[in-house]
Every structure is written in C-alpha cells, then in structure tokens.
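Checklist before submission:
- one chain only
- standard amino acids only
- sequence pasted in full

Submission:
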Amino acid sequence: MKLSFLLTALVTAASLGLAADARPKPATYLTEAEARAAGPDFDLQGEFAGDKLGAQVIALGNDTFRVVFLNGGLPGAGWDKSPKVEIEAKRDGEKVAFEKEAWKATLTKDALSGEGGRGKFSLKKVQRASPTLGAKAPADAVVLFDGSNCDAFAGGHFDELGRKLLASGSKTKQNDFQDYTLHVEFLLPFKPLGRGQDRANSGVYMQDRYEVQVLDSFGLAGRNNECGGIYSKTEPSVNMCLPPLVWQNYDIDFTAAKFDGEGKKTRNAVITVKLNGVTIHDKVEIAGPTGGGKKEDPTGGAIQLQGHGNPVFYRNVWLVKK
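Returned file contents:
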C-alpha cells in the first residue's frame, strides 16, 4: 500500500514537472503590426498628458492594465516626483475603467479621462521621442553600426525580420576603447506577460565592464536593475524609459578608470548618461565592474550589447573618442 502510494506520488510529481516545463513562454511581439494583430492591448498602453498631470498605462497581459498617475506631468516633462497613484484594472472591450479611492478614470486608445487628485482631468495620448534620435555620426566618429553590415561586432548579426537592425548579443571586435562619448539607439519588444528581468532584457557595457541596463521598465519605479540603471549600483535620477516598440536612445559620456604605473587604481570610472534626451546620471563614479563585467585594469575594453534571452535590437551606434 505504501509502495503504491509512493509510486503514484512520483508519477504525479513527474507529470506536474513536465506540465510546468511545457508551459508556453510569454508571447513576444517584434513589430507594431504583430502586436496589434494580437488584440487591442498594444494600442491602449502608452503615455497620456494634460494640464499638470501625466499618466503611463502599462499592458500586463491577460487583458490587465496598470495606470500610473504622475502629478505635474510625465517623467522628464513636469513630474514633480511626488508619490505616484497606481491602479490596476481589466479591459472591457476596447476600454478600461480604473477606480481606486477618489480616483476614477476611463481609458481608450487615444484618451484617459476622469477625476481624482485635484479634480476632473482629460489626458491625450502622446508619443515622445528623444531629441537626439537619428543623430548623425560626426566626421571623427567611430561608426560601429549604421545598418550596412555587422562587421564591427564579433558575433553580430541582423535581426531575423530582415530589417537591417543589429540583434543583441555581441561585442565590438575593437577592445581598447578608453574615454569616449557613445550614441546608441535601441528597440524593446512588446511582451505584456513578461515580468522583471524577463521583459526585454539587454544592456550596454562600457569597456565590457560597466553595464547601463536596457529593459522594458516603462512605468516602473526606476531601480538600479531597470532601464537606465548602472546595473546593481546606481538608480537613474528619473525613469525615462518609453513604451515598448518605440525607438529610444542613450547618449553616454564615459571616462575610464585611471591607474598608476604599478597598476593600482587611482580614480574610478565616471559616467554621464542621457536616456531619451534627459540626464539620468551626471558624472557618477562607478566603483567597480557590474555583474558579468570583466576585471578592471589599465587596458581598454569593448562595447558590448548584451544578449539575455530577449530579442532587443539596436541601430545607429557610434562613438567619438576623447
């Protein structure tokens, strides 16, 4: 009897394990057309702005949405950094009705209206873009990727859709970069059921040592492991991550760590980062390598566009040596 019970338990546990392993992965949409074909969720998410109030609507999958209200306006465009109001609700058709305490709001793909906080509000959908998006490489720049080929990157390859975009998961063949300014543009997929580090994870590494995180952190708190964070070390001053499937960019000023003649470090690396045109790190020291970064020493290093199991794409990547 006991043996029979044990065998039954083992078979049940094994079947449960197989079922867990067979669970489908969260759907990942690489284009707006794909995202729209899956339903109305993509068009409902995004940023909304009005008179001294901003809102970010995040698609969470399974017809669920979270709205984040920001007093004063959107991040980098008026938000006074006072506490946010966050509400979750289910979609009903092509609308979502949010309600929490004094807040009530109705979302459509073009507008978000209701009352709460300081009274009634009517917000319109906006689509922000970095002022340096598409910036041309200066004459003295080292052009790493312009869409013509992937030759500057070891293991570099175009995206699977043939769009002449650089897929994440490679680093430059040149590995002696020291002090420079770097321009890099990136595209995050739409992955509503993804959570945390499984939501469009990548990263831009300075010298293959220090990672500036790339992640779909739209509407989140802005932690050091989210988009714009110096990974695991320093949070961005504001979360400037835009919605997925919108082109975004970093403009980074990097000064390498300095060493004396005996190889002893005399000064930390220093970095200034703009995300979508807004300064999120200003002359921040990096005390040592971030996770996965190579050991510090006087030699330079490569630019790595980290691959982390998510399809993230890059374009218009260039730097100017200082």
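Reviewer check: Residues 97 and 106 are 5 Å apart (CA to CA).
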